[in-house]
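Dear colleague,

Following up on Tuesday's group meeting, I ran the structure prediction for the two-component complex that the binding team flagged. I've pasted the input sequences exactly as they went in, so you can double-check that nothing got truncated or mislabelled along the way. The structure tokens for the whole assembly follow below. Feel free to forward this to whoever is handling the docking comparison.

Inputs:
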Amino acid sequence: MLSVMTYIPLIGAVIIAVLPTKNPNAFRWIALLTTLINFGLSLYTTLGFNRGQPGYQFEEKANWIGSIGAGYHMGVDGVSVLMVQLNALLFVTAVLASWFSIQKRVREYFVALLILNIGLVGVFCALDFFLFYIFWELVLIPMAILIGVWGGANRIYAAYKFFIYTLVGSLLMLVAIIALYFQAQPLVGYFTLDIVEITNATAGHPLNYTFQILAFLAFGSAFAIKVPLWPFHTWLPDAHTEAPTAGSVILAGTMLKMGCYGFIRFNLPLFPDASKDLAPLMIALAIIAIIYGAMVALVQPDMKKLVAYSSVSHMGFVILGLFAFAYGLGGSSGTTTNALLLHNSQAFEGAVFVMFAHGLLTGGLFLGVGVIYERTHTRDIKTIQNTTRVASRMPVYATIFLLYAMGSIGLPGIAGFVGEFLVMQGAFRVNGWLSFATSFVIIFAAVYLLWMYQRVFFGKIGDYDPAVALSHGAGHSEHTPDTAATNQSGMAVGADNSAHGEHGLPMPASEKYGSGAGPDTNRVGTDTLPEKGSTHATPAAGHDTGHNTTRGHHTDPDILANGAKFPDLNLPEGLALIPMGILSVLVGVVPALVLDFLTTSGSNLAVTMVEHSDKVAAIVQLVGK
Amino acid sequence: MSLLTHTLLQISTVKPSFTGDDLYRVLPELIVLVMAVLVVILDLFLPFRSRPALGYLAILGYAGALVAAGFLFYYDNPTKTSFGGMFVRDNFSSFFEIVFLVSGILVVLVTPSYSLKRGIPLGETYAIQAFSVLGMMIVAASGDLMVIFVGIELTSICSYLLTGFARSDPGSAEGSLKYFLLGIFATAILVYGMAWTFGITGSTNLVAISQSITRNNLSGDAGLTLGMLLMVVGFGFKIAAVPFHLWTPDAYEGAPTPVAAFMSVGPKAAGFAALLRVLIQGLPTLAVQWSVIIAVLAVLTMTLGNVVAIAQNSVKRMLAYSSIAHTGYIMVGLAAYLNTSSPDKQNDAISSVLIYSLIYVFMNMGAFGVLIYVQNRQGGAEVNSFDGLAQWAPGIALAMAWFMLSLTGIPPTGGFLGKFYVFRAAIDNGYTWLAIVGVINSAVSAFFYLRVIYSMYFNPIADEDKARLQPTKAGFIAAGVVIASIALLLLGIVPGPALDLARDGADPLIQGVRTATGR
């Protein structure tokens, strides 16, 4: 089942690659179908998953490379099944989000996207180090290509930075994997790269402490770069800003989770003593990430960068939760007290919940930014604020975006709240001040997201500033002879204009052309919605145009031209945004839907960590509790 | 001189035994020799137009030798010596022969379109390549320093010739001359080292050398160490290890591209075969010393190769430096051979060298094949000649991307498996720091390999360049590129058989050391 799920995108990619047609719609439909099948299969897996049973399910095992002990081993536990499910959902969303926004090299785009899908499913299912590493690196190439080909202006720099940064981390992990392979050999009895066998074998025979620390750091550097944890985060804002919308959604939604997942799957169970002893360090980095991400998000002028930095902040919560959990388990001190044995399962469950919720909410935010970018071709908050009042033109979109923003802030009732609450509760058990610091940050989250929302969706308070409008209007004085004609077209539009009628300022030429067939290059740029592109010349479009030009607010003629056509969500966008919004509310109201998957995994992990840290007494205590 | 006469005397005292068995064991070599001679003769008599057909004969010869080597590998694999211990037929020699023959076939595939376009005589090229391959095969199968020397020289002289083959091109002559001068210098050092070794141990036979060292407890002998050092320097020139690499970029740049492709894989692998034979079979008790030297050289080689490659604008020169870097990776595997008591760990080290050599043949030959294709159509070898390759030759571009990723070491390519195996051997034998240097270097190498991919996929081709694109017959190159790509895919996804092959190939050396030193 898992293999079928992993390789179905490959079939889709091959079909798209060899299809003898130039019709981009064919590629879109095949990609959508593939991701939908993938989603269906993962839904089947999720529903069929026995939540009370410890260990891995849906396992598949086969011999592969005998001479180095690498096998083909797939399987999911509670954490990975959630991630696979989230991933499948986000890929359907990503295909929908690229439906109209990707117009060049559509074939290659969907091939890259589907190969990315293989890698991401594989990473969460692989239970063999060799296999895991292959999938881990497989993710890298298509993502770099997505950024580098379909990205923004500075895409090459971002793609390079992304690639090199993650490659360095992965290679350090590779060294650690090989070292672990030799360290585990005496414990297992033979050479194997099987994750489950190595994890089981180290139970009761903890790895050498120095080795644990070194391996923790090597694995940790790969994962911390991927998460990304402060100070390894600098690739993230660049990658996000330049990536196409779908790329950002996948990047935030599942790729960042690869790092968190790596901590859960490898660092905590394999190196429990190091995890415990390095927990203060990791917690400190997490707190810095939470605060730093939020502070930097406050001052971002670019919507996508703002959301990207908010991601840094949110991922800090995940790491905080995980290491608040680790803090209470294992350890090299040799003494086992009740205080040490917090069995802080809230922290763990909260961390994984944040991972899930962040995937939904930040994915949604990126989609939302993509929607507005499609229409205005800018993500600059100030420009949008000065030129467009999104809320009045796109009410549906504004509503759903508010839902995601609120969820991301942590409004109770939406997914974001549950995870952060649990993490803070867990952190409180380690140290009350940690919770204090992090809860403080939620205020920042409210500030940056609500402020952004207000500026983008409601425009400038105080409405119309004649000075600004005039100074910009002066730049177009050569067009004044056109005024009469423009006004005529405005009159023809009818009564809809009456609200703004008093701002009878000269319209810039571009707007006038906009209502016609339009030689203006800006108009051409907006033709990313092909089914509507043909309507430019029709009277209906002219009507639309006239209606939407809230004259006088527009200071930037470029935006004005784009603002001339400002439809609400189209079908693919709606299909992408609305179900995810509903799901995030559902999960927020009934968190047990997700938490049920985690209880067994959490206590399993706790037992493993304690076992591995060579404290038999601790197990007794833990089981007794 | 006295050394030579002495050896000659020694040889002449051995009862000449040209039995059928001896000939049977050199069957692959004989096939290649006959093919090479046939090519030379036919080249004289065939009309000019039909000389390219000699390529088929060359491929046929290599394929026949490949079958013979494979047969000997599988059905007649216990170690046997011929010609009085001069020639050794074991799995090690068979494995390397397979590597050389594969590189021979690939180079024949990529040669014709380039040479025909530039008026480089084809028949002679094939013949000299075949003699070069023969020299490499002799190196791999030698049991005696003298035979190694003969083989290395046969290969080197062919390489000097091939480098200068583009007679109208001054760069080619310059590269050839530099290569020749530095090469004979290195050869002199190599012979000097062999002479020292012979002087201390009293034999040129590798097994006899190691027995003599054990028997007379010579492993601390300064003269022997000097001999070892001189030989490492000599072979270091042949494999282009830093700081003995200075000839490489100029020779590669000047040489016709197919020749550069050939030199970057064949003679290099032969150099490693010789190093393995000499250091492991001849001087196993000195492993503690030479392992450290090789490790230090490996660090220098990897780092310099990768760092300088970043600054190159010509893909040909970039590949030259990248081949230096890959020499460094292979040396990591060689350094990992520390004379521990565990034959398994020794096997890890040796087999990592073998498997990396095999994988490297495919990825480098493939990359050079694409470079030749681009040179044929675009004229230049600069990075920007690759601009928009994905548009005007999507299949070739995809293959190039695959080779570049493989050279970087990204899974699931064969290159990843090679690096994995080499670093695994290093970590296994206590060289974790070396493995870390290696992976950092891999990350550095991503810069320049990605630049080619970037140029192919992200840069559009300039319109005037597009208009100037020349037609080319790409059938053979395409065949070579496809073979290399598929081989890399298989080596990356189902490497089991190849790894077993390499482990079998490494076994005879370990067995030999055990019987010779009694450990």
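The interface with chain A takes residues 405, 410-412, 416, 420-421, 423-424, 427-428, 432, 435-436, 439-440, 442-443, 446-447, 450, 454, 457-458, 494-496, 499-500, 503 of chain B (CB under 8 Å).

Cheers,
M.
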